[in-house]
Amino acid sequence: MENVLFRDTIGQIMVERIERDYDFNMIQKHFHNEYEIYYLLNGERYYFIEKQIYHVKKGSLVFIDRNQIHKTVGVNSNYHDRILILISADEIGPILDLCDNFEVASFFNKNYGIIDLNEAGQKYVEGLLFFIIREMKMKQSNYDFIVKMKLAELLIYGTRCKSGENSTLINAPVETEKYKKINEIAKFISENYHESISLANIAEDFYISKCYLSRIFKEVTGFTVNEYINITRIKRAQQLLEQSEYNITEIADIVGYESITYFEKVFKKFLETSPLKYRKKFNKKV
Fold first, then answer.
1. 156-182 confidence digits (pLDDT tens)
2. Residue range 227-258, pLDDT digits in tens
3. β-pairing, 60-64 with 70-74?
4. What is the mean predicted confidence (pLDDT) over 3-28?
5. CA dihedral over 241, 247, 248, 249, signed as positive or negative
6. pLDDT at residue 29 is higher than 80
């Protein structure tokens, strides 16, 4: 069962609380232009971020940079209750500009990852999150400004946690043999995505069977091997469309696609637009 306890937006800020008690794995696009804040109120999950797998549990606070590959999968008990926030820098950037040396993009670039909060930290963060939800439900005068202020406070608190000012633990990647092997394979893919790589030759390079690799990669990360290869390639293509002058055919070749038709098909699957339209839309923003 899935129970949507809250979901609302203010401009380019989305706040959502969902409670689930079934074997849920994320089916979203797995990377997006918004910054993400994730807080686990109850239960436990495995959280795959870029090339590492982390075990998150009650009181885990997660920061995800824009366009980072990420996904959660279940652990043992299916039940979990979480709050998710997606946010554009344009929404709270002006408020954080009032702070000395605090910039939203820099914060998420330097501080993405997982913080396990102690009891006091959990109480503080949950107070902020539930205050935000109450304000968005009641919609009293200037509630949007108050919500942005509380989000800015949450990011500043995250900075303090990362710098060791609060009694919290920075969550380390899971280090069992199986998870270390998947970390190695994910790293290999992220470094060689532009080559002609497949499930078969990755299995051969790591001396494991295709069947076993396929099963444990999906189990641990939530992705199939081919899905992760494609996501890694499309993420890089997205960067090239934004930051380079290469044409679409050249970008397809750079990220490892021999067929521009197939490249455009995969790109549209994940970003819901063509590479050319994506570039035009991005250029309008800058």
1. 999 888 877 776 777 888 888 999 999
2. 999 999 999 999 999 999 999 999 999 999 99
3. unpaired
4. 86
5. negative
6. no
Task: Please choose, from the candidates 168, 232, 175, the residue with its C-alpha nearest in 3D space to the C-alpha of residue 202.
Answer: 232
Length of the chain: 286
Q: Are residues 213 and 280 in the same domain?
A: yes
Name the amino acid, one letter, at 239: Q
Which residue segment(s) compose the domain that 192 sits in?
177-285
Q: Output the domain CATH number for residue 107.
A: 2.60.120.280
CATH of the domain at 240: 1.10.10.60
pTM of the model: 0.85
